[in-house]
Specification:
The chain folds into two domains: 23-233, Alpha-Beta Plaits (2-Layer Sandwich), CATH 3.30.70.1230; 252-351, no CATH class. The protein contains eleven helices and nine strands. It has helices spanning 7-15, 38-44, 47-73, 104-126, 129-136, 168-180, 192-198, 255-267, 272-292, 296-317, 323-350; strands spanning 22-35, 79-86, 89-96, 144-157, 163-166, 188-191, 207-209, 213-215, 224-232. Strands 1, 2, 3, 4, 5, 6, 7, 8 and 9 form a nine-stranded mixed beta sheet that branches. α4 crosses α7 and α9 runs parallel beside α11 (323-350). The chain is globular. The protein starts with 6 loop residues before the first helix and ends with a helix. The mean pLDDT is 82.
């Protein structure tokens, strides 16, 4: 039997001070990413292979979020860039470490960064060892779905100076991610709140959105709009070596990457995102080759013609014409660029 507590002991327990939780309401950019089709994988693959796939996803999510944290937020002492991954689900939150009022640009840039991370994550996951094994055997690759939201969360400050956002906004982001699996394009969906904050950048972003789609998750009435990233392009400054801010500088595709993306698209020809990735990887690779060879004039031509082709493609994608037309313009303009460079090289040799 345990010893009875003395009166002195019970008095000490009663007098022990209760620590009040330290925290505040703060605006937060929230991202949830999940592997689409995990039940299918777990049901049809050996457990050891399924576990190996999860380890690859966890490692990839941590690697990508850390790269963006170091590249874009290392100098922001007052911004927390908190990422975690459990099983087949990763989440990221960007918020202030103090209850100070923030400006619009901070959150606009944060949402833009979340989209760049999502595209990079999808790109590298398609080229992961797990998916490459499927590509070689002509099987479809397993994609990633992403939900992005912007809202108020309660920022808990822990005793070890760590911070943990909590609240309804986080649960809502998970619902957005679940609905993003039903998307028709990239499966990257933004809430209306996140889209509105991003609006000042939309004319200059390397991606465009589909029309708003109304969803009505259980327990949420009357529902809300989602905006799916419809098409994505290389940024306007992608060919500028002086530019250090573009997320595209973080990824440089190899010939093997390009071949694998092409095969992945052939196995799943309805996947528009894969086709756009294939086109842009080829352009990037071509640019790197010309850069190594010091062909300044060809690089200038490539950059100018790409910007013109993207301008046309964006107009088509935002019009009543179908997406196939936009992609055909992208493809035709790409091959046209290569042909122009060949003609230029031929002309220079004759000179």
């Amino acid at each position: 039997m345990p010893k009875e507590l003395s009166e002195e002991s019970t008095t000490a327990i009663k007098r022990k001070p209760v620590m009040e939780p330290v925290g505040w309401e703060g605006q937060t950019v929230i991202l949830f990413a999940d592997i689409v089709g995990c039940p299918e994988i777990s049901n049809n693959e050996p457990l050891e292979k399924y576990n190996r796939m999860l380890r690859q996803f966890r490692s990839l999510f941590e690697k990508i979020t850390n790269k963006y944290k170091q590249k874009f937020y290392a100098s922001h002492d007052n911004i927390d860039f908190k990422s975690q991954v459990r099983g087949n689900e990763g989440h990221l939150m960007i918020f202030r470490k103090t209850p100070e009022e923030s400006n619009q640009d901070l959150w606009t840039d944060g949402i833009d960064t979340a989209i760049s991370i999502s595209l990079d994550l999808k790109r590298r996951w398609t080229l992961s060892k797990f998916n490459k094994e499927r590509i070689v055997t002509e099987k479809h690759t397993f994609d990633i779905a992403v939900g992005i939201h912007f809202g108020q969360a309660w920022i808990n400050k822990k005793s070890n100076n760590e911070f943990q956002p909590e609240g309804y906004a986080i649960n809502l982001t998970k619902k957005i991610e679940s609905h993003s699996r039903e998307g028709a394009f990239t499966h990257i969906c933004l809430s209306e709140a996140a889209y509105d904050k991003l609006y000042p950048l939309l004319d200059g972003t390397p991606y465009i959105f589909d029309r708003p789609h109304l969803i009505k998750p259980k327990g949420i009435s009357p529902g809300f709009n989602l905006f799916e990233v419809k098409h994505h392009f290389l940024p306007a400054d992608w060919a500028d070596e002086k530019t250090k801010t573009s997320g595209w500088k973080i990824f440089e595709p190899s010939k093997d990457d390009i071949e694998k993306i092409e095969k992945a698209h052939l196995a799943n020809p309805s996947n528009i995102w894969l086709l756009e990735e294939f086109i842009m990887m080829q352009i990037q690779h071509g640019h790197e080759e010309l850069l190594k060879q010091g062909k300044a004039e060809e690089l200038r031509i490539l950059g100018n013609e790409y910007r013109e082709s993207v301008s046309v493609a964006k107009k088509l994608a935002n019009s009543s014409m179908n997406d196939a037309a936009s992609l055909l313009v992208c493809m035709a303009s790409y091959w046209g660029k290569m042909e122009t460079i060949k003609r230029t090289n031929s002309f220079l040799k004759k000179k």
